[in-house]
Amino acid sequence: MSVDTLPKTAAPEAGNMSRLAFRMRDYGIVAALVIIVIALSVSTDTFLTSGNLVNLLDQTAVIGLLATGATICIISGVFDLTASATLALSAIIGVQVGRVTDVYVGMLAAVVAGALLGFVTGTVVVRSGVNSFVGTLATSMVYRGLAVMVTGGAIVYPLTASAETFGMLTWPSLFGLTSATIMFVVVVAILAVVVSRTTFGRRLYAVGGNAEAARLSGIRVGSIHVTAFMISGVCSALAGLILASRAGSAQSTMASGMELTAIAAAVVGGTSILGGEGAVWRALVGALLLTLIGNGFNLLGWDTIYQQVLQGLLILFAVTMDRWLRKRTR
């Protein structure tokens, strides 16, 4: 065989290996999810009970919403570390507005507050030009501080007369699932379509893949980033309403640190931390996987310290795999 033929035969093999690697990333996470489900089904008598499955999906709703918002931001090339602070402040605003008006008006106010906080976060990051990680970290501190100022550091409750209505997101709904789960599924389905089937979604990927090239092609990069932060803010507000509805109250410290878990779910699901690659369904699978791990540890009675170790290893593996895949495609 001549030397000239080696590159010709090696190139298709390299291409096949790259395609195989990408398929492993695409479907490996789903396979891992299925394996854990089978393992828990065999090792416990309670995993497949309707009560546990309903609880599992209900627990996934909060982290799933946050992970969806984080995924959309990461695809566009930015990070949002304000998610949990936005969650807390929006929930507090929702409760406070509900006290002076109506529960439904309060919930609407919480969602609007989440969108506005996302707009402020995006504007700060875009206008200042600072790295989104640093910018959103600083902004999250501001939001937490505002939450403490609004509440005076105390827990806020809805009026006694409306307390039952305020807990509506915990009520059973279709197929015995909670209203929170149904809301989560609907929101994620809508955002999945928006990201994968609309012009905005295509621009989102373009900006995350190469912001300068997107700008030169006429895309308003700043507007895309601000919109991504606003979507993340709405997702955070909805997650905050779920937590507040469960607890029957809101406080400034709620969901502290959960933004990192959301980013972890997005990354474990296969969304590239470098931007331009990912999907909403990946956020859903990543959130389900992390929730399943926690559920499994509880059912098996294992020490939760090892749960954190396992989650950390999963994140490290996902990031390493993403870096390796990018090298393979260069």
From TrEMBL:
Location of this chain's protein in the cell: Cell membrane
Mode of membrane association: Multi-pass membrane protein
> What Pfam families does UniProt report for this protein, alphabetically?
BPD_transp_2
Q: Where are the transmembrane segments?
A: 27-48, 60-83, 103-126, 133-157, 169-195, 224-244, 256-276, 283-302, 308-325
The keyword Cytoplasm belongs to this UniProt entry's keyword annotation? no
The record's annotation in InterPro entries points to: ABC_transp_permease
Which keywords has UniProt assigned to this entry? Cell membrane, Membrane, Transmembrane, Transmembrane helix
- Keyword Membrane assigned to the entry: answer is yes
Protein name as it appears in the record:
ABC transporter permease
Its taxonomic placement starts with: Bacteria, Bacillati, Actinomycetota, Actinomycetes, Micromonosporales
